[in-house]
Amino acid sequence: MNMFRVNQIGLLLERDKQILEASESNLTTTVLNPECRTLLITGPSSGCGTSTSALSLARQLTLSSAGKVLLVDASPSPQGLTASYKMGGAPGLLDLLVSSTPHEQLSECVQQHPDLPFDLLPLGLPSSQSKYLLHEQIQRLFEALGHHYRFIVIDGEAVYSSSYSLSLAAMVDGVILVVRGEQTRWEVAQAAVQRLRQANANLLGSIFNARRYYTPKWLYRYL
């Protein structure tokens, strides 16, 4: 997983010549910034690998920070985190959004998996009210979760899959855009960046996923 600064997105997508190393300084800056607590992982379109990237980022933050990390599944994809970890019947995010006392139900919804060094909040059980309550309830839910976790990493829907992704992007402390090598067109990625900026999202950077190296990776450092 390679993470890039926001001012490198255009260069990366327009000219696939310069191979950039994983941005450890970005991760360090995020860890040291006390105001950066909620991070949304999204992509221009589905299939970019946001769930894999969210898992990797949550793991890195767990190893790099002293506080606890929570990974939230906010994507209804059938290949999402909830399905992958067989938590389809467990209460989760959607249940907390319709609850009048989400802080009292956290222990019922937050799950611990033996293969994960961080906690996981599954999508939960769909409700006819959940989407309508998103705008009103999500900030209160973040505040409740913030008492227990240093970082809240959110695996969100793609920018072009749902308008709720843009709404959520405006509520979190930072957004990371996932682009997939040899699949995401740079025009689509650039348009997604523009939509996020128009939504007043704080775009921290991007993750270049599934990069293929046609020559040994170490040689790119000398090109």
TrEMBL record:
Keywords: ATP-binding, Kinase, Nucleotide-binding, Transferase. InterPro entries: Bact_polysacc_biosynth/exp (IPR050445), P-loop_NTPase (IPR027417), Wzc-like_C (IPR005702). SUPFAM superfamilies: P-loop containing nucleoside triphosphate hydrolases. It comes from the Bacteria. GO terms for molecular function: kinase activity. This is CpsD/CapB family tyrosine-protein kinase. It comes from Serpens gallinarum. The lineage of its organism: Bacteria, Pseudomonadati, Pseudomonadota, Gammaproteobacteria, Pseudomonadales.
